[in-house]
Amino acid sequence: VKQSRRSRLPSIRSSPSLRVALEVLPPGTRLFADPEGGPVPAGSGDTTKTVVTIAVGPPGGFDAEERRSLLDLGISPISLGPSRLRTELAAISLLSVARNILLNNALGDV
Question: How far apart are CA 84 and CA 1, in angstroms?
């Protein structure tokens, strides 16, 4: 926190299944890494106090049923570019997207 001069640390959680994870999602902005996704939706996150939940699937991405479950809950599919990323890199990339949502909302459009 000191090095990055940020006041929030990301919380990393794991669940035994996607179904279990989806049952306990907090309200707020919700994103998932998806090769078929688009850019971050306009107006995502209202303030720097917004909870941003990100979901990254296993190598190869979420299967069709998992993807449908995410979409049915209104979780936004976000593309991380044309390259296929390892799960670890996708998580870091999507975390950067979430950080930028909060930063842009705190400072206005940058």
Answer: 30
Distance CA 6, CA 9 (A): 8
Residues 64, 32: Cα–Cα separation, whole Å: 14
Average pLDDT by consecutive 10-residue portion of the chain (110 residues)?
Answer: 64 85 88 88 61 86 93 92 88 85 59
Q: Is 82 left (phi over 0), alpha (psi -120 to 50) or beta?
A: alpha
pLDDT at position 36 is 87
pTM to 2 decimal places: 0.77
What is the pLDDT, as a whole number, of residue 109? 45
Question: CA–CA separation, 7 vs 2, rounded Å?
Answer: 8
